[in-house]
Write a structure and sequence with these properties.
Length: 230
C-alpha cells in the first residue's frame, strides 16, 4: 500500500486496534467461546502474532520457530480485525467501557465497520484470509441496515471465493498438512453456515443452498484437523 492508501484507511479508522488490555480480553473470549465451535483460523499463528508484536499497515508480522530456524509469518490486518469483531461480543461491559465504548452494540458496529472497509479496499492477495474474515463477519449478528447486507451476503462471498480456491476439492497429497487442515475446517464451516443460515423450506423467503453435496469430495473432518494439545 502507498501512503495515500494508508492515509485513507487510517482516516476511516480501519487500521485502529483496541487498547492492549481489551485486545487480550477479546482474544481470550475468542479462544474460549468462538473458536471451539467456529475453528476457521490458525490459532498458533494468531498467538505468535500477538506475542511478538505487530507491524502496522497492510499486514501484521510475527516470527516463529520452524525446523530450528526463525521463520517470518504474517497475518492480514483484515483477518485480525475480523477476529476482534467475532470476540468482542463476549467481553465484559466493564472492559468495553474502560476502552471508551458506550455499549456492546456500538462496539460491534465499530469493529464491523473496520472489517468491512478493509474488505472493500480489496488489497489482499491471501484469499484464505479473506474467506476466513468473511465467515467471521457472519457472526456480527447485526440486523440489516444501510451498510450491512446481512450474514447471507458475506457467506455467499466466502463460498464463491472458496470455490475459486478449490477448497471444495480433496487434496490427495497436500504439501502442508497443517495448512490443509485449516483449509478443510474453513470449507466445512462454510458448508455448515450454508445450511444453518438457510431458512426452513416452508419459508417463502427461503435462501437456497449454495453448496450442493455432489459438488465436493472433501471428507468429513477428523480429530487430526484440529489444533488439539498432545
Amino acid at each position: 500500500l502507498d501512503e495515500s492508501d494508508l492515509a485513507y484507511l487510517q482516516q476511516h479508522d480501519a487500521c485502529t486496534l483496541p487498547p492492549e488490555p481489551l485486545q487480550s480480553e477479546i482474544l481470550k473470549a475468542y479462544l474460549e467461546l468462538v473458536n471451539p465451535s467456529f475453528p476457521v483460523i490458525d490459532i498458533e499463528s494468531t498467538l505468535f502474532t500477538v506475542k511478538f508484536g505487530f507491524e502496522y499497515g497492510e499486514e501484521m508480522r510475527y516470527q516463529s520457530m520452524q525446523n530450528g530456524q526463525i521463520a517470518n509469518k504474517r497475518i492480514q490486518l483484515l483477518l485480525f480485525q475480523a477476529i476482534m469483531l467475532a470476540g468482542v461480543r463476549f467481553v465484559s461491559t466493564k472492559a468495553l467501557r474502560e476502552a471508551g465504548f458506550t455499549s456492546r452494540e456500538s462496539a460491534i458496529r465499530i469493529f464491523f465497520s473496520r472489517v468491512k472497509i478493509l474488505y472493500n479496499f480489496d488489497s489482499y492477495t491471501d484469499r484464505l484470509s479473506v474467506i476466513q474474515s468473511l465467515l467471521l463477519m457472519t457472526l456480527a449478528n447485526l440486523p440489516p441496515y444501510h451498510d450491512n447486507k446481512g450474514a447471507s451476503h458475506w457467506l455467499d462471498l466466502a463460498i464463491s471465493f472458496s470455490y475459486q480456491m478449490g477448497l471444495y476439492r480433496k487434496k490427495a497429497h497436500p504439501r502442508n498438512r497443517h495448512q490443509n487442515a485449516v483449509e478443510r475446517r474453513v470449507w466445512w464451516m462454510a458448508v455448515v453456515l450454508d445450511r444453518t443460515l438457510s431458512p426452513s423450506p416452508d419459508t417463502l423467503l427461503s435462501r437456497s443452498w449454495r453448496i450442493k453435496h455432489e459438488d465436493s469430495d472433501v471428507e468429513m473432518l477428523s480429530l487430526e484437523d484440529f489444533d488439539l494439545d498432545d
